[in-house]
Design a protein that fits this description.
The longest helix has 15 residues, at 8-22. Helix content is 41%, strand content 19%. The chain has 10 helices and 10 strands. The protein folds into 2 domains: 8-74, Orthogonal Bundle (Chemotaxis Receptor Methyltransferase Cher, domain 1), CATH 1.10.155; 84-267, Rossmann fold (3-Layer(aba) Sandwich). Strand 9 (257-261) and strand 10 (264-267) form a beta hairpin. Helix 5 (84-97) runs parallel beside helix 6 (115-127). A 7-stranded mixed sheet has the order 6-2-1-7-8-10-9, covered by helices on one side. Strands 3-5-4 form a 3-stranded antiparallel sheet. The mean pLDDT is 95. By secondary structure, the chain is an alpha/beta fold. It starts with 7 loop residues before the first helix and ends with a strand.
């Protein structure tokens, strides 16, 4: 069944939809992305127009389809050890904290398919010695979280993993998994994933020594940034750190943390 091109009015509905659900301001230039990502869902439901698909989402009778649409419209590309300066900072901080008794906790607040969280885990496994540690990865998309829990990635996706870590913490796939790598089991046991919508009241997550919220705020307007950052910073321990993407800034967003290095902020004690 042929699908009619998305109209400007239909696209505007999906812009409002993803803003209301996830706080994401979708630029007009993303019309092709919406068309490409949602066309298959129209085919599944034998619909001819994006307006019909939006009506289906709006009935309240298809929560699984709403989640599917959210997943498709919010998934962003990531990779291991993206923006390496943050991991160099994390390594230095972990080395200073490795003799303490209380657990060292990190939150990857927009973890996507898990590469960021597992990159953190490799650093902590290398540095923390006997100090207990744990990592939480969250995302709004249930689909990418399923992939994160599988912890199976193409070898190409692992090209930025340092060779030493690749040998220590990854297992080379064989048979049907040839060409893939699997994160080592003991590392996976320290990383948990759950769905969290940063654009809503947060569940009880506890306090963290470090929170990464990187390369997601660029999709928020300033009001949404302020609300999201305020929620997230509440979960940083006094003296803890908050990392944002290198293309992002907290200028005029919050005074609860102070910049100590590019894209790295510290919460007051």
């Amino acid at each position: 069944m042929p699908v009619a091109p998305i109209s400007n009015a239909e696209f505007a509905r999906f812009q409002r939809f993803i803003f209301e659900v996830a706080g994401i301001s979708m630029a007009d230039a993303k019309k092709a992305l919406v068309t490409g990502r949602l066309s298959k869902r129209l085919a599944v439901h034998e619909l001819e127009t994006f307006g019909e698909y939006f009506s289906l989402l709006s009935t309240g009778k298809h929560p699984d389809e709403v989640q599917m649409a959210v997943d498709l419209l919010t998934t962003n590309e990531t990779y291991f050890f993206r923006e390496i300066k943050h991991f160099e900072f994390l390594r230095a901080y972990a080395l200073k904290e490795r003799c303490r008794v209380q657990p060292f906790r990190i939150w990857s607040a927009a973890s996507s398919s898990g590469e960021e969280a597992y990159s953190m885990a490799m650093v902590l496994a290398d540095c923390m010695q006997t100090t207990p540690w744990e990592i939480l990865g969250t995302d709004i998309s249930t689909r990418v979280l399923e992939g994160a829990r599988r912890s199976l990635y193409s070898m190409e996706r692992g090209r930025h993993i340092p060779q030493e870590y690749l040998k220590r913490f990854c297992r080379k796939g064989t048979g049907q998994h040839e060409g893939y790598l699997l994160i080592e089991r003991s590392l996976r046991s320290k990383v948990s994933f759950r769905q969290v919508n940063l654009n809503a009241a947060l569940p009880e997550l506890g306090q963290f020594d470090v929170i990464f919220l990187r390369n997601v705020m660029i999709y928020f307007n300033n009001d949404t940034k302020r609300q999201v950052v305020a929620r997230v910073i509440e979960n940083i321990k006094p003296g803890g750190y908050f990392c944002v993407g290198h293309s992002e800034s907290l200028n005029d967003i919050t005074q609860a943390v102070q910049m100590v290095a590019p894209a790295i902020y510290k919460k007051g004690i």
